[in-house]
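TL;DR need structure tokens for one chain.
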Amino acid sequence: MDDYNRDREEEQPRSSDSLNEPPHAGNYETPQSEPMYRTQNTTPPPPPDPPKRRGGFLPALFGAIIGGLLVWLLMFTIGGPDDSENNATGTVKDSGSSKQVSVDIDSDLTGVVEKSTDAVVGITNLQRGQDFWTQSDTPQAIGTGSGVLYKKANGKAYIVTNHHVVEDAEELEVTLDDGTKMSGKLIGSDVWTDLAVVEIDDKDITSTMEFGDSDALKRGETVIAIGNPLGLGFSGSVTVGVVSGKDRSIPIDINQDGSVDWQADVLQTDAAINPGNSGGALINMAGQLIGINSMKITEETVEGIGLAIPINLALPVIEQLEQTGEVNRPTMGVSLLDLRNIPVQQQSVLKLPEDVKNGVVVTEVFRNTPAQTAGVQKYDTIVEMDGEPIEDMVTLRKHLYNEKKVGDSMTMKVYREGKPVTIDMVLKDGNSF
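>> reply
TL;DR here they are.
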């Protein structure tokens, strides 16, 4: 027996004798000593505490009781009925050992959404087709998008949406946020800006959305997208993001012929925009309409790039569509072809200088148009308008549609038979270039 165990055996009789000293020792049951736990390590156990510490059980128990009381008092103070300064209010359901608390939370975001959702509607494009059940020719839903109520006047309410939402529609069905459905009338649409205006009866319309200032937006500013992604089953969906970029220019193939027809000027946001959101609202934290959700880049390697038409660019188009049903744009009265799309062998007919690589070639001049009056000729190659370089039809369209108005004068630089020629003309409205 080692010295450590011998000492323990010698201590136990002395401890037992001391416990038998009080009166009536014969009726007192001696407490058993606490078992000693050993780990299976090869390291010897530490030496025991001196005998004088064996009596610390009662102080420890007393301290535990005091600590428990303090914790209970602290919890009662924090979560008790005197918590009158808590901003969250609700009801409590007692389910035995746990409690379910229903909390009503208000924030700036929820407040903006609450006052804006009534102004966002669903728009269903109905076109004639054969019904499967009745074999009759009836209007059927071809697609569903979104729209924004922006005005009430003379018993009518006006909705702005995307051109591609209402394109080729024979009938339009408008669904309000509360599920009410009504017939919509297309006032006008514009393919170049992808905007359209729809009219409905205003008897069930409770609110409209005011226009904001998209030029005042800052990158990183919080914006909210509201619409109907994937159809009316997800109507009134809300997504939140920031303004990722301003003044983005996105190439658009309008007629799906594989060539770029237009450069759309858009806002970029990371707020989720999906099919069905088209025509819906992009709003700021003041609840103002600052963009019309239009498209999303859907390449496999792209994530979180949604695009919206800035309201400052949309407003003039909306006003014209509402008043006249169309957008009057200045035209020259010609048909055009990009120089870069003409084979090199055929470019020899134009006799262009070697340093002229970009421009737009006139392929036809229409009668009684500004171009004919100004003396434009077939095969003239346009390289400048008002001093700005013209590289292709996209830049030509943007100059005409964004910089000029009907009745404005314009100066063009063209190459004719290899020589530069300056042409002045007064623009008129029409349906061609």
